[in-house]
Amino acid sequence: MSDKYQGFASSPIGKLLVKNLGLPNPTKLDRYSAGDPLVKGTIVTGGNGRLGESLPGLLDTLGIASTTTQADGEKYKGLVFDATGITTVEGLGDLQEFFTPLMRSLSNCARIVVIGTPPAQVEGSERIAQRALEGFTRSLGKEVGKGGTVQLVYVAEGYEGSVVSTLGFLLSPKSAYVSGQVVRIGAHKEKKATDVADWTQPLAGKVAFVTGASRGIGEEIARVLHRDGATVVGLDVPQAADDLQKVMKEIDGDWLTLDITSSDAAQRIAHHLKEKHGGVDIVVHNAGVTMDKKLANQSPERFGKVLQINLEAPEKITAELLAQKVVNANGRIIGVASIAGIAGNLGQTSYAASKAGVIGFVDSLSDALKDGITINAVAPGFIITQMTAAVPFATREVGQRLNAMSQGGLPVDVAETIAWYASPASTAVNGNVVRVCGQMMLGA
After folding, report:
1. Which of 20, 157, 212, 328 has a CA 20 to 30 Å removed from the CA of 384?
2. Which residue intervals of 285-330 are DSSP H helices?
C-alpha cells in the first residue's frame, strides 16, 4: 500500500501547495534494511547522570559513532541526554542548554532519547523533576519534524548496562514510527540483560510463535523475526492455510492451522511447540478481528466474538504454555494492543475493550513471570494495510495525518518494535506498552 498524498506533496506542484496552504508535509521515513548499519551518522551525547560517562561505550557496542562535542556545520543523526542527574526543577534548564544549540544541526529522521530515573524510585524535588521529563519529550516529539522521533527511557538504578538493546532500537530506523513514548527498564526488578553475540542476528537459535501470521502485520512480524535469526512457527485459521504455508515456506518456518477460540486450541498449540521444537522463546499474540458497530446496534454474538479472539484466546494460550513450561527461560510474551484501547474509537466498543484488556494482560503478568520471562505489548495506530485501504477516503486521510509525522505507519514498524522486545538483551524491558503511531495526537 502506498501513501498517494505523500507522493503528491513531494511533487513540484504539491510542494508549492503545501507551502502556500500550510498542508501536512510528511517526510519519507528512514527504515532499516538487513545489512545496514544501525545508525548512518553520528550521535551527540550529553548529561552528567548515572549513564553519562558510559553512553559512548554502550553505543560503541552497537557500532554507533558518537561524540560529546558539537562541530560547526556538522549534521547529526541523533541526540542522547542523560537526565538522571537532574534532581531539582531548576536543573531542568540543563535540557534547554543541551538541546537548543543542537536542534538545527539534526538531519532528517533524527533520533532523540532522554534517559531518566523512574519517578517512583526518588522523592521530593527529584521526583518532580524526573516526572517533568515526560512533558518535555512528548512536546519535543511534536516539534522536531522532518521524520524525527523523541523518546524518554526511564532506567532503574542498577540497570544501566541493560539499556543497550533499547538504545539500538530507538536510535535506529527500526523505530521509524515510534515517537513520544516512555520506556521503562528494570521497573519490575528483572534479571539483567543477556549478552548478544551478534547484533545482526540477536534471535539466532530462538523459536518464535506468531498468531495471525498469514498476512498483514502478522506476516511482517514473522519475516522480521526470521531476519533476526529466529525459527518461526506461524498460526492462522484453516481458511488462511494456503497463504500461511506460502509465507512460512519462504522463511523456512513451521505452521499450524486452527481456530484459537476452540476449546482445545491452547493444548494443541502447547503440544505442537513442545513436541516439534522443544519449547518456545517468543510468543506473539497478533491474531485479531474487528466487528465494528455502535453499541446500540451491537449483538451479543459479535461483541463476544471480538473479545474471544483478541483477548480471551491470548490469555488462555499463555496460561497453558506457562503451566506446561513450554516457554523457555528468558522467554518473551508479546501482545498486540491498539491506540483504540487507549483513546477509544467510534463504533469500536468491543474492539477497544479487547485491546485495553491486552494492556491489562501485560499489567497482570509483568510482576508474576519468573525465569527472566517478560511480557510487553505494542499499540499500533494507523497502519497502512489491506484492511485500512478499505476505509472510506476521508476517514483514512484523517487517520493518516493526525499524528506528528503526518502519515500512516507500515506493518514493518510494528514488527520492528516486537523484535526489540524479543531480543535476549531486552530482559529488563518488561511491563511496557509502546505505541507505534507516529505520536498520534490522541491518547497518552
Report:
1. 20
2. 300-307, 313-323
